[in-house]
Specification:
By secondary structure, the protein is mainly beta. It is built from no helices and 10 strands.
Length: about 130
């Protein structure tokens, strides 16, 4: 099977809403309904079918980057990124590419303490390059 160079490159752009809890970024208060999540999964040239996941969390109102994380993972395994976006709120991102490299999955969950307050899941069929 041909390797995919841009797996999830039409990056999943999700705006998470529902709560108006604040966060201090500089002197501004960031509202949760103004936070954007951009996730991309790209195949690398490393041996062993290694993928790189990049997750960028931004304040949509000011376009300020609140967090930027990268993680490497193998096909058939999950990668996780956790970000504290606001006091008391945590963003959990989980991504994977199946062993056959035919499907990528992404989920984002927001927790207020231990309570799940927002959840999104995306599954994408991968084409051949």
């Amino acid at each position: 099977m041909n390797r995919k160079k841009a797996v999830f490159a039409a990056a999943v752009l999700a705006t998470v809403g529902a709560l108006a809890a604040g966060n201090t970024a500089g002197s501004e208060t960031v509202q949760l309904d103004q936070v954007g999540i951009e996730v991309s999964i790209t195949a690398t040239d490393m041996p062993g079918v290694i993928y790189e996941c990049t997750a960028v969390v931004t304040d949509l109102a000011s376009e300020t980057v609140l967090s930027s994380s990268k993680v490497l993972f193998k096909a058939g395994e999950e990668a996780q990124i956790r970000v504290g976006t606001t006091p008391g709120l945590d963003l959990h991102i989980v991504v994977s590419v199946n062993e056959e490299e035919t499907e990528a999955q992404y989920s984002a969950s927001i927790y207020h303490g231990e309570a799940l307050v927002s959840s999104q899941k995306v599954k994408v069929a991968l084409g051949r390059s």
